[in-house]
Write a structure and sequence with these properties.
Blueprint: H1 2-15, H2 19-49, H3 52-75, H4 79-100, H5 105-122, H6 124-146, H7 161-242, H8 246-276, E1 284-288, H9 289-306, E2 310-314, E3 321-325, H10 326-342, E4 348-355, E5 360-367, H11 401-411, E6 415-421, E7 425-433
Parallel strand pairs: 2-4
Antiparallel strand pairs: 1-3, 4-5, 5-7, 6-7
Helix pairs in contact: 1-2, 1-3, 2-3, 2-7, 4-5, 4-6, 5-6, 5-7, 7-8, 8-11, 9-10, 10-11
């Protein structure tokens, strides 16, 4: 037995890494080989009993099944074999219905076995197809029988006792094997899912620990970098105040610009790492949006004037309030409005506050700047990304402002919407839940 198994499916089993598919291959081989042995027994029974129609059918099926074994060995595939086995069994069922002029227990058992086998080896679509294919002949036979139509002209033949026992045992063990295989697959899936959950839990804990360590590292390094930079900026300020040399004053101004830019970059990286580590603590309070926008505009007004831009605020006629973190929202406004001014060389930057109809409030920042290309729009909120990169960059920045702003607004339960066209300007809308006490 092992010799024949190795001869026909040994190479196929070794080439198939999937354990479940290996089990299906063994199932097909066991069905075919066992059927060949059973058919040889049936051949002798039919020959002894003189069942000539059954005898011819039996010989044909023996040759087909032996051919199937050699096909598996040659092609190293069982898909066509599964279809062929199901077709032979379906045809055998219909012949038995014709010979016995009855739909008996054995035909029902074979029908159930075939349907389970089809779902198991070929999938849902094939399972449904073969279910319908088995049902239609049985339905027509039943309708014909109740209508007085008989499919056989002679007396119905009966199965021999040996054939009854052999068929029952064979089909019983096929069904048991299929159910056992499903159970094994289910247990294997449970173990795999449990292992995956444990691995994900471990990976999550490791990621959280790495984020915590990263945040601690950045916090410490930020302190170590800020301290000497603040000292440098303080000394440069003293130098600028005490010197009358215009050239030195210009050097001091450039030094302070570079130092402040470096400090802003360090602060942005630290803020981003805190958000990713989920260590940012919200300090919620009721905020008047119109007042917050006015305060934010004061710190950016000088930047807009230096570029000779119209810097306008159109407040809502209603009092707009939201429950938010003032520091976070102030930083978001600085980032969004600051970007609008930075990327606008002529024209205007207009800020509008609006009360929306869905119990939300919004701050709309519209500019006439360089706009954003359609290709870059999906990446506009990615960290460290800018549309112009490398030596082609036309504007300074770390690419963190919008990324941090989006994460802050999402923490506050809102969203940032954007519309933009290249060389035609951009519109950013910061939407937040309105304060329910209004």
């Amino acid at each position: 037995m092992n010799f024949f198994r190795e001869y026909f499916i040994g190479d196929l089993l070794r080439s198939e890494p999937d354990v479940l598919k290996q089990a299906s291959i063994r199932l097909i081989y066991n069905i075919v080989s066992t059927s060949v042995y059973a058919l040889i027994v049936f051949f002798l029974i039919y020959l002894w009993k003189g069942f000539h129609y059954q005898l011819i059918k039996n010989v044909v099926i023996i040759f087909l099944f032996v051919g199937i074994l050699f096909y598996i060995k040659a092609q190293k595939s069982i898909v066509l074999v599964c279809h062929l086995l199901l077709f032979i069994s379906w045809l055998n069922n219909n012949i038995n219905i014709y010979l016995f002029d009855d739909f008996n227990f054995f035909i029902a058992l074979l029908t159930v076995s075939n349907i389970i086998f089809a779902f198991h080896t070929l999938g849902n679509k094939a399972g449904i197809f073969y279910s319908i294919a088995h049902f239609i002949p049985i339905m027509f036979h039943s309708l014909g029988k109740y209508s007085g139509i008989h499919f056989g002209a002679r007396q119905p033949q009966q199965l021999a006792l040996m054939e009854v026992i052999t068929t029952l045992v064979l089909v019983f063990f096929i069904i048991v094997y299929l159910i056992y295989h499903y159970h094994q697959a289910f247990e294997l899936a449970k173990v795999s899912i449990r292992r995956s959950v444990e691995e994900l839990k471990t990976a999550k804990e490791l990621a959280e620990e790495m984020n915590r360590l990263k945040t601690n590292f950045l916090s410490n390094m930020s302190h170590e970098i800020r301290t000497p930079i603040n000292g440098i900026l303080g000394l440069s300020q003293v130098i600028g105040m005490e010197t009358d040399n215009d050239e030195i004053k210009n050097y001091v101004r450039l030094q302070q610009q570079s130092g402040n830019r470096l400090l802003n970059t360090i602060t942005s990286i630290l803020d981003l790492s805190r958000i990713e580590a989920q260590s940012s603590q919200l300090k919620l309070k009721v905020i008047d949006l119109n007042n917050l926008v006015r305060e934010s505009m004061l710190s950016l007004e000088g930047m807009a004037k230096s570029k000779r831009l119209q810097f306008l605020f159109k407040p809502s006629s209603e009092k707009l309030e939201c429950l938010s973190d003032e520091t976070m929202l102030y930083q978001v406004l600085n980032n969004v409005v600051g970007n609008a001014i930075k990327f606008t060389d002529k024209g205007e930057v207009v800020i509008t506050t609006i009360k929306k109809h869905d119990s939300r409030v919004s701050i709309v920042v519209k500019d006439t700047g360089i706009g954003i290309s359609e290709e870059f729009m999906p990446r506009i909120f990615n960290s460290f990304e800018q549309e112009s990169t490398g030596r082609s960059r036309s504007h300074e920045g770390s690419g963190l402002g919008l990324a941090i702003s989006k994460k802050y607004i999402e923490l506050l339960g809102g969203e940032i919407l954007i519309e933009s066209k290249k060389d035609q300007g951009s519109t950013f809308e910061i939407v937040l839940p309105a304060y329910k006490g209004q």
